[in-house]
Structures are given as C-alpha cells and as structure tokens.
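INFO  loader      accepted 1 record
INFO  loader      residues=325
INFO  predictor   begin
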Amino acid sequence: MPRFITSRLKSGFERLQQSLPYAIAQRFVEIDILTHAASLTFFALLSLAPLLVLLLWLTASLYPAAQDALLTQIQGIAGSGAGEVASTVLENARTEPDVGSLAGTWSTLLLLFGATAVFARLQGTLNAIFHTAGDKLRGGLRAWLRKRVFSFGVVIALGFLLLVSAALTTVLEIAFGGSPTLPVLGNLAALALYTVAFALMYHYLPDRRVRWRQALLGGLLTAVLFVLGRWGIGLYIAEAAPGSAYGAMGTLVVLLVWLYYAAVVFFVGAMITAVIDERWRFGDVQRRLDERAARRGLPPVAETPSTTAAASAKPATREPERAAG
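INFO  predictor   done
INFO  writer      dumping tokens
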C-alpha cells in the first residue's frame, strides 16, 4: 500500500479517536451500560412499592387528590401497563393493614431504605460513568447514611416535579382546552420538566461536580431521547406485545421492558454529559496552560483531547472531590 494512503488512513483514525462519538462509544463499552441498566431495573422493581407509597405520602400532604394525579403522571410517562402496576401497589398499601402499617407507622425507616435503594444504585453507576472514586464509599457507616439521606432528598425532588407536572397539565387544559396547540404545549412542558429532572441528577448525583452548563445540555439531550423513545417503546409494546406470553404477569413484564429502556437512555445521556464535561474541562486547562506559556514567552502547550479520559480518572487533581452524598 502506498505510503501516502497509509499516512492518510492513520491520520483519519487518529481524528476518529479524538471525536466525540468515538469517546462516547468507548465509554459505553468500558462501563458496560447494558448490564448497569439491567441492575438498575432490578433495583427499581424492588423499590417500586415503597417508592410509590412514599411519593404518595409526600404529595398528599400538599395536594389532596395526589393519588389520582400520581397515577395519571405515571401513565403519561411509562404507559398504561406501569399505571396498572402502580394502581395495584397503591391500592394494596391503602387496604391491607400490614402494608398500610408498614408504610405509615412503625416501619418508616425500612420504607425509606427501600425507596432510596434505586437512587443509591443510580449514584454508583453515575460514579463509574463520570470516572469518580466516590462509589468506593469512603467514610464507612457515616458516608453510607449521608448517601441515603441524599437519596431521600432526590425522592422529595421527584415528588415535587410530579406535583409541578400535574399542576402544569391542569393549567394548560384550562387555558388551552380544545385548542389544537394543547398537545404541542403539553409535550414542550414535559420536555422542560424532564430536562430539569435529568440535569439535577447529572449535576448532584455523581461524586464529582458537573457544571450546570454541561448538566443542562446533557439533560436536554436525554429528555429528547426519552420523549422520542417513549413513543417508540410504546409502539413496540403495542405491536410486539412482549408481555402477552406471560399471562397474568404480562403487565409486570411490560413494566420491566419500559424500565430497562428508560435506564439505558438515562445512562447514555450521562455518558454524553460526562464526555462533554471532560472535554470542556480539558479546554479550560489547555487555555490556562497556553496563557501561562504566553506570559513566559514559551510556545503553546500541544496536547490532544485523548488525554482527557486519563485526566478525568483523577478528578481530585483538577477540583476537590465533593463529599459523598
């Protein structure tokens, strides 16, 4: 093969290695996102009952018709199958004495533990995606408790966003009832709320600080993927009927499929956010080095974005690591 062709191929491959899509694909393989998504789906299923009961308790104190609003929002986000499962869980929590007492009286701590387990698992995966060492949980029991308290704060924030979503839906229906623009406004409002929710999690859950600009950008990209994919996964569930072969368990299988898809989308958005944040940090470091070199009369420092991943593996050298939780 002629030398100039070899040189051109080598140059093209080097440019590919420095590109954003290549970095995202490399992170996808490195972290094994599909396995992490399956793990999160399992934890989400185990946490579903206590999480729903806790959200209902939080929202009912502010909004009397909280249960109907909560079920409406769950159906709007995850489809009718998830709404049926949520309705069954809430009905059992209300009618069964054992479950009711578990939710409201002597087992509150156990309820909080179950409801926050999924967010603790979520935080561990985000630490891996953002290349932090926080998932090693330095600090023992105290750090573990801080993480649980922080996860409880995430549950409160989620309940607040559900309330905002319900209130916003009501306002739009009153102001634009019967208007052909109502579905468009509803989708835009949902997109804005999803963006805020994802940005908050990308900014606060990892054990290293993610800048708001990158968190909001990643939140917006994830929200767009989530809204588009929600329509796609709804079409798949309607056409393929993955739960039809499981009889009475079909609704639960549909919920698992949806949870798994949502977890994959969330982690892909986190990967995009992490890579963009690392490259932005690299650019800031590069500019500071060039300015320092210019003041000393030295040539600019020549580095490539490929060093970003190596630098991001040691976030404490660039910025003090946030305390766990």
